[in-house]
Each structure stands twice: as structure tokens, then as C-alpha cells.
UniProtKB/TrEMBL annotation:
Residues 422-548 form the B12-binding domain. Keywords: Methyltransferase, Transferase. GO terms for biological process: methylation; porphyrin-containing compound biosynthetic process. SUPFAM superfamilies: Cobalamin (vitamin B12)-binding domain, Methionine synthase domain, UROD/MetE-like. This is Methyltransferase, MtaA/CmuA family. PROSITE patterns: B12_BINDING, B12_BINDING_NTER.
Length: 548
């Protein structure tokens, strides 16, 4: 299932992309506004204020790619739209352009300011890469004319749309040239509206223009960010000639990594709002390390956020994201080749080879926890991601899990006492029901995703569940019901189980006798129809609990 694009097993892994020295960065620099007395509106119109904010921000945040505090309205405003500026919100378009203008970027005051900031960053932060952030012509035109108007034109007035897109392209091209001439060495294009294009219209309405703008970058260092689910757009995005693709937080990178050539960077994709913007610094660091443990073994991975970090995000969270991520990248990439090969063999269901590679990694003094997370657990998480996107099937997952367990047998004695014995989830089939296969698959998938599971077996009474809850204080209890008589017991059982646990404990149900509606009726917190989605549901709940 997992493609082998690696070299022979070894230790360190050299980047396969063009962005040498770029390991981690948050998108944009919007939290910089917290470091100055000026507000967002003032930063949008003053070089001195913006440079002061950005320079202070990057003195604190050790980002490998620097941004100049950009906003989505700037090109549309230059094209004739009226922008609204506020003290505590990012600039936005207030009224559409009566006609689309094509000014030179050097003649647009706000674009001049951003070029000045780029020039100052090049002097003030030598050796660090600088992004020249431009919005794609399709998105800029949507801002200038109205997004719905432009989207309708894709289908019913496309011949009228092209001359307007050409004008938006000229403005984007001029702006990109201004920023690159000022010292930006990475040409970054954000084109969020392009995510809403039908795949058959992407090349004509967005991709071709992006290709031509990227061709301007003499360094060859280009990055493309399109918000949302771009599963059907990855191939045409690659065909723009871009050298790095930034993925939205909604994308599971494990499901798409094989679609991205090894010389194109996979950039992403920590949640910028719920994690960096709202969680604790400790959780942000943990989430950063977890993402790296899964993706950092790839030679073309760069850690970033899934979109721009909001202006109000705590600065300590931004620092935690970058610092923890860089440390994790160093640890993982130092042993990436052997870890990647372990993951590939386990994903392919080759148990004996997986065991030999785990043994070889231990002989090389690779941390057993690193082998477990970045080698074995990664393989199961990737198989699960492929299953949920219909790229593989349950028999293949079971073979991967078999290889996972064989490799873990070597590691268990070494990771005991390092969090490996805690019980995160208690599961069982309810009283009077002897069905076990669905419940067993859930246990397998949860264990393979790194969760501690206590399996109480079948024909489990409410009292047995409650006793296990009192003894182990799990985050989650899962009840399986395959027959109607078992389903009827659920309301009473769930009440007794809840009385034994903490207020934050969640109760989930599954099995042939229940569905989402039944789960709500019996008082459960969630429902999953099968094992792979159960593991995803549990992972989401555990993340939410740890984030709070």
C-alpha cells in the first residue's frame, strides 16, 4: 500500500525538495500585531508599524520562512474594489469593483509597503527565507467582483471570464515581481477560491495562470496553498510546476503523500485556530510532535500550519509549535531512512521483514518509541487513511496490523513504563451478546493507533464496565451491540457506566444493532459503524480532551 520511494535503509535523510534549511514555519505573521501598539488597520497602511511588528515577531518565533503580514483584500483593492479596514479584523472587501483595473504594483501604496517590509526582512534576517505572498488570479478576481459572481461565470459565461482573469493575472504578476525584486526568495501563492472549481475547470481558470506566475521565480522556489479539500486537484496543482504544496488542515497527509512527487515539498498542516489559536502551549507542542512523528520521515515534508495563524493566537503557542516541531524534525529525520522502510514493509503486510528492520533499528540505537510511532503506528494510520479514501480495503489493513503486532513484540519490553500501560479506552460487547469480531477489530485498530485498550470481552454486564471504569479511569468506554436485546440494555448500562466515571469520560457505541440515531436515543456520545472510523473518532476525542 505504501510506495517505496526511499533509498536503502540508513540513518539521516536529506531533503528531496528545493527548500534546504526550511523545516518549520507558521503561515503568515498575523499574531505580530500583538507586539505593537498600532492596530491592524494601521499596520495595513504603515511601513514603520508593519516592520516593527514583523521584526519583533520573528525575533521571537524561529520560523524558517518569513511572511510580511499579508491580507486577502490587497489585490482586489488595487483592481478597483473598496476595502474595509478595522482595528481588530483583517481587511475585507466592502464593495465590488465597478471595473477591473490593472495598475502596476509599484504604483499601489499598500503593495509598496509590503515590498519595503520584504526588503527590510532581507536585511534584518539574513539567511532566512522570505515568502513573497500573492493571491492567485482566480481568488483575487473573486474578491474584486464577488465570489459567487465569478463562480457562476465558470459555467455560464466563461468566455467573458477570461479577459477579466487576464487582468487579475497582470496584477498578480506585477505584484509577484515587485516582491521578488525586493528580496523574497520563495514565491508563495494562496488561491483559496480555486478549491471550489470543478476539477475540469481548474487548469483553464486557475492552473494555467498559476503556472505562468510560478515561472517568474528565478530561484525555482514556489509554494501553493489552496484551502479546503483538494483531493481531486493534487495532480493539476503539481502540473502548475510548483515546488511545494501547502495543504489545509482538513487534509489527511497520509492519504495524499503518494500523489505528490518526491521533489515537491508536502507542507502542512497543523490546525491553526483550534490548536495554535485556542489550545495550550503544551498541547500545541504535543500536536506538533505528533504530526512530525507521522510525516517527518519523508524527505519532502515541511512542517507548517494548515492555514494562516489568526492574529489573536497566543505567541507562546506559535513558539511552541515551531520549537517543538523543529526538535522533533531533527530527531525523526536523523533516523528517517530506516523508519520509512519499516513503515513501508509493515504497510505492505510483510511481517518477517518488518521484524528484521525493527531489530536493525534497535541495533542502530534508534529510540524504541520512535520506532513504534514513526515506523509501526504510522503504517497503520496510513492504511486507515487510505481505507477511508477508498484506496485500500480491510484485508490489506489486517495484514498491516499483523505486521504491526509482530514488530511491536520486540518493542513492548522496552517501552513498558513509558506510557504504554495506561488505559485510554475500555471496550466490550454488552450483556447477552456473544458477537466479538467487530469489537475485536476495533481493539486491533485502537491498539495499532497507539491507544491503551482494556478489552472486557463479550457478555459484559454494566457492573463489569463500571468496575473497569473505577479501576482505570479511561477517557472513553466503547459498547458493542449486535442484537436487538443487547440494544435495549444500552440506556441503563450507559447510565451506570457514567456514574462510575468522570464527567469528561465519553461513551461510544457500535455494532449492527445501533446507528447514529440510536446512539443519541440511548445517551451515547458518539457512534461508529466500523473499526477504522472508530479509531478516527477516538483519536479526535482524545485530542479534544488533551487540548482542553
Amino acid at each position: 500500500m505504501e510506495k517505496n520511494n526511499s533509498s536503502l535503509p540508513g540513518t539521516a535523510c536529506a531533503p528531496s525538495h528545493k527548500f534546504a534549511g526550511v523545516q518549520a514555519f507558521p503561515i503568515n505573521a498575523l499574531p505580530a500585531v500583538q507586539l505593537v501598539s498600532e492596530d491592524i488597520a494601521e499596520l495595513s497602511h504603515s511601513f514603520e508599524a508593519k516592520w516593527k511588528a514583523v521584526s519583533r515577531y520573528y525575533e521571537r518565533v524561529n520560523s524558517d520562512l518569513l511572511f510580511f503580514f499579508s491580507d486577502i483584500a490587497i489585490q482586489a483593492e488595487a483592481m478597483g474594489a473598496r476595502a474595509l479596514f478595522a482595528s481588530d479584523n483583517m481587511p475585507a472587501i466592502k464593495a465590488a469593483a465597478p471595473a477591473i483595473l490593472t495598475p502596476r504594483a509599484a504604483d499601489v501604496p499598500r503593495m509598496q509597503i509590503n515590498a519595503q517590509v520584504v526588503r527590510a526582512m532581507a536585511q534584518g534576517f539574513p539567511g532566512r527565507s522570505i515568502a513573497g505572498l500573492v493571491y492567485g488570479p482566480f481568488t483575487a478576481l473573486g474578491q474584486a467582483m464577488g465570489e459567487q459572481e465569478v463562480l457562476r461565470s465558470v459555467r455560464d459565461r466563461r468566455e467573458e471570464l477570461h479577459p477579466l482573469l487576464e487582468k487579475a493575472f497582470l496584477v498578480a504578476e506585477s505584484y509577484a515581481a515587485l516582491l521578488m525584486d525586493a528580496g523574497a526568495d520563495v514565491l508563495w501563492i494562496s488561491d483559496p477560491l480555486a478549491a471550489l472549481l470543478p476539477p475540469d475547470a481548474f487548469e483553464e481558470c486557475a492552473g494555467g495562470y498559476l503556472h505562468d506566475i510560478f515561472a517568474m521565480a528565478v530561484t525555482g522556489k514556489t509554494m501553493l496553498h489552496i484551502c479546503g479539500d483538494v483531493s481531486e486537484l493534487i495532480k493539476p496543482m503539481v502540473e502548475t510546476g510548483v515546488s511545494g504544496i501547502s495543504f489545509d488542515q482538513c487534509m489527511d497527509l497520509l492519504a495524499v503523500e503518494d500523489q505528490v512527487p518526491r521533489d515537491v515539498a508536502i507542507i502542512g498542516n497543523l490546525e491553526p485556530v483550534e490548536v495554535v489559536g485556542m489550545a495550550s502551549a503544551e498541547y500545541t507542542a504535543e500536536a506538533s510532535r505528533d504530526l512530525v512523528s507521522v510525516m517527518g520521515i519523508l524527505p519532502n515534508f515541511i512542517l507548517s500550519t494548515g492555514c494562516a495563524v489568526p492574529p489573536g493566537a497566543p505567541l507562546e503557542n506559535v513558539e511552541a509549535f515551531v520549537n517543538a516541531g523543529k526538535q522533533a524534525m531533527d530527531e525523526v529525520q536523523n533516523k528517517a531512512n530506516i523508519l520509512r522502510t519499516i513503515s513501508q514493509k509493515a504497510s505492505g503486510g510483510d511481517g518477517p521483514e518488518t521484524v528484521e528492520l525493527v531489530r536493525e533499528a534497535l541495533y542502530m540505537n534508534v529510540d524504541p518509541l520512535l520506532v513504534a510511532h514513526s515506523g509501526l503506528i504510522r503504517s497503520v494510520r496510513k492504511s486507515s487513511a487510505l481505507y477511508e479514501t477508498r484506496q485500500c480495503y480491510l484485508p490489506e489493513i489486517l495484514l498491516t496490523v499483523d505486521a504491526f503486532y509482530q514488530g511491536m513484540e520486540l518493542l513492548r519490553p522496552m517501552i513498558a513504563g513509558q506510557g504504554g500501560d495506561s488505559v485510554d479506552v475500555v471496550i466490550g460487547t454488552v450483556k447477552g451478546d456473544l458477537h466479538s469480531i467487530g469489537k475485536d477489530l476495533v481493539r486491533i485498530m485502537l491498539e495499532a493507533n497507539g491507544f491503551g485498550v482494556l478489552d472486557l470481552g463479550v457478555d459484559v454486564s454494566a457492573g463489569q464496565f463500571a468496575q473497569a471504569v473505577r479501576e482505570h479511569s479511561p477517557l472513553i468506554v466503547g459498547l458493542s451491540a449486535f442484537i436487538t436485546s443487547a440494544r435495549r440494555l444500552l440506556p441503563g448500562m450507559i447510565g451506570e457506566i457514567r456514574a462510575a466515571g468522570s464527567s469528561g469520560m465519553k461513551v461510544l457505541v457500535g455494532g449492527a444493532a445501533v446507528n447514529g440515531a440510536v446512539a443519541s436515543e440511548v445517551g451515547a456520545d458518539g457512534f461508529s459503524p466500523e473499526a477504522v472510523s472508530a479509531a478516527r473518532l477516538v483519536r479526535g476525542i482524545v485530542k479534544a480532551v488533551r487540548r482542553s
